[in-house]
Design brief:
Largest sheet: 5 strands, mixed
Distance between the termini: 127 Å
Order of helices and strands: HHHEEHHEHEHE
Radius of gyration: 31 Å
Strand content: 5-15%
Number of strands: 5
Number of helices: 7
Strand order of the largest sheet: 1-2-5-3-4
Structural class: alpha+beta
Amino acid sequence: MKKNVFMIAAVAGLLLTSCASKKALTECQTENKSLTATLQSTKEDLAGKNARIASLEEQLAAQRQALAESKKAYESLQSALDKSLSNASQNNISIEKLVDQINESNQYIRHLVEVKSKSDSLNMVLQNNLTRSLSKEELKEVDVQVLKGVVYISLADNMLYKSGSYEINDRAAETLSKIAKIIKDYKDYDVLIEGNTDNVPIARENIRNNWDLSCLRASSVVQALQTKYGVDPKRLTAGGRGEFNPVADNSTDQGKQRNRRTQIIITPKLDEFMDLIGQAPKED
């Protein structure tokens, strides 16, 4: 009898120990799953921040280049002025005529500066309005910048489309609606939607390659802006550049992520600046 009681107690002890071990294992598995998800989220967040830093560095480099080009243009104008003075001296051109030529040149230069300043100011306002309208979470995946008088809005593919698809997901709706509102507020600007991919080949039903994917994605955004958000289709152009317009090295995951993007490019209408061609000062 005592022996049986001992055996029952031993079995009960083993069962309790086994249950405790299973519970601990389950808790460890749950914790491991949570830590894995956190790690993946942290990696994605870090990749997004690194992409944002790289984009800002590119923007700074572009601004430095623009400054260098402005300096070069100023030096060219100064050289032309010096040449005019030299020609005037050699050809005995009257002071009055020379002054008229200089005034005409200065007037043209001021006109160009005014047009450029107006364009730059409008674009900076547009950029600021876009940035303010987007949330902090959206700004992690949407990059807004002005380069050479053109506003670029770059959107990550994973926030716009279903994986490997050109169909826009529900998550992108709020962001696109904010961008559409800004586009509608600036009626004198044209809008180009440009799809870009990484260099990983794709072959699916109705998608032969990255050319197809980039064009279809751009077309999806254009149609959403038109049909869902009321943007005038006459202002919209859709285009795809496949894998052939990279902004980063495709040999890294971060580079591929940056290259998989759709750009909404907002530009002033060209006809507003065409009259400048006929306003350049004439050379005698």
